[in-house]
Every structure is written in structure tokens, then in C-alpha cells.
Amino acid sequence: MFAGVNLLDHLAARVRQLRQRHGLTQEEFAEIAGFSYKFYQQIEAGRKKQVWLETVERLSASFGLEAWQMLAPEEPGRTVVAGPVKRQAVAEPASRYLTRPARRSGRPKKRR
């Protein structure tokens, strides 16, 4: 939050403003940004309680901006509508780090 403005409200207003500047409907822009129409509609309406950084990056990239430019207080000057934005591939799946390692086969673990 900066200067009394909720960051999610700021993001919602900014994407709405940029989408309208380029003459796109919510559905058209959602497709360009790689989101479902309903998900994008919730962002723009300010009904999302939290938004991931990856989401802000994808929204920004759709207008040829960096995430900081989308969130900056001043309006970005020149923007362009990029082609469909694709998710970046993750080098290693997070599940590798979030799951327990498999038990070794063999003798059962002794109880104390």
C-alpha cells in the first residue's frame, strides 16, 4: 500500500485503463494474457484478495511493461499489446521440495 491506495485496487484500475486504451474487451485481453476470462474479470473488478507476482508479471508483459511499471504510481507512457503470454517453464518442479522422501525399502524401522 502506498499513499493510502490499496495495491490491488491500483492494479485493477491500471489494467482496466490500459485494456481500454488499447480497445480490448476483458475477454480479448484475458486470452492475450493467458488467463481465463473469469479470473481476469475478478482481478479487474478488484474481487481478488491476493494476486501472485507471476500474475502481475504476466499482466505487465501483455502490455510490454515490467511489473514495477504496472505497479508504479505514475501511468506508463507508451504501451503495446504483446502476443499471447506463456508461463515460464520451471527448471525443477516445486513438488520435489515439498514432499517427503520415500522410505527406503528393506528392513522396517525399529520402534523405540
Describe the secondary-structure layout:
Blueprint: H1 7-21, H2 26-33, H3 37-45, H4 53-62, H5 67-71, H6 95-98
Please give a structural write-up.
Residues 86-101 have low confidence and may be disordered. It contains six helices and no strands. The chain has helices spanning 7-21, 26-33, 37-45, 53-62, 67-71, 95-98. It has 112 residues and is mainly α. The protein has one domain (7-98): lambda repressor-like DNA-binding domains (434 Repressor (Amino-terminal Domain), Orthogonal Bundle).
Percentage of residues in helical conformation: 40-55%
Q: How many β-strand stretches? A: 0
What is the makeup of the main sheet?
none
CATH structural architecture: Orthogonal Bundle
Strand percentage, roughly? under 5%
Structural class assignment: mainly alpha
Oligomer: single chain
**In angstroms, what separates the terminal alpha carbons?**
53 Å
Radius of gyration: 20 Å
CATH class: Mainly Alpha
Provide the low-confidence segments as ranges: 86-101
Global mean pLDDT: 79
Q: How many structural domains in the coordinates? A: 1
Shape: elongated
The CATH topology assignment is: 434 Repressor (Amino-terminal Domain)
Question: How many distinct helices?
Answer: 6
What is the helix/strand order? Answer: HHHHHH
